[in-house]
Amino acid sequence: MTPLELGRVGLWRPYPLVTPDEAAAVERLGYGAIWLGGSPPADLSSVESLLAATDRLVIATGVVNIWTAPAAEVAESYHRIEAAYPGRFLLGVGVGHPEAQGAAYRKPYQAQVDYLDALDAGGVPAARRALAALGPRMLELARVRTIGAHPYLTTPEHTRKARELLGAGVLLAPEQKIVLDTDPARARVVGRAAVENPYLHLVNYVNNLKRLGFTDGQLSNGGSDEVIDALVAHGDAQTVASRVRAHLEAGADHVAVQVLPMTDDPLPALEALSQQWADLRSG
Predict the structure, then answer these.
(1) Which end of the chain is more exposed for a tag (fewer CB within 10 A), N or C?
(2) Average of pLDDT values for 113-141?
(3) How many CB atoms lie within 10 A of CB 229?
């Protein structure tokens, strides 16, 4: 099996916003992967167009929602993509949020196990899939049933704890929000808009932040400045890059940066940052 080469730094971006031209530019800047957020549908057609436009970039889903994408169809899509672009696709899957699924939502851990079982039946290798994981049980499931974990909305401290739970040799690829702006007040406005709605109203993210030591008071009313600063790296290129390095030093193998605001073109920020971690991108 062709090994995955994610590199040390990649881009996280909602799948409807990523164009083939943008993917080619991300590759030229030296980044190793693009993670497609926003629950891509089971046909995974958005993955193929980006792979076709690039030569070595890995495309990962961050993540396919198990409630909306049938496992059998996802498995068929995986085999089609892997045959055409061997070693360049990573299937990230996750349970999503109870608030979004309503009555259809059932015990998330067992539902995730069942979905992984169905992917097994469909012939999707554990080495080609990752799991959205925040808490200890999901991290353990990621360790034993997939190549590793893709935590979202976390801190370097979470990365350190996750590495302790996962042990060595298991992929750990957290997402990190960034705002390239040296005005803290202005950057926090952008960061808070991305964090508060919806994430500070979703129980799984709130519970994870409480495990990291944040209080109800800090997590209410849009999140305190301490919460926003912990979740959104902002400042000049050197300052923002230092947060990425903090994840790597805490045990991450790869960090997927999300440039905010997400509706803006991410390429100027990625270009400004590229020299800051030129030593990391292929390491």
Answers:
(1) N
(2) 98
(3) 18
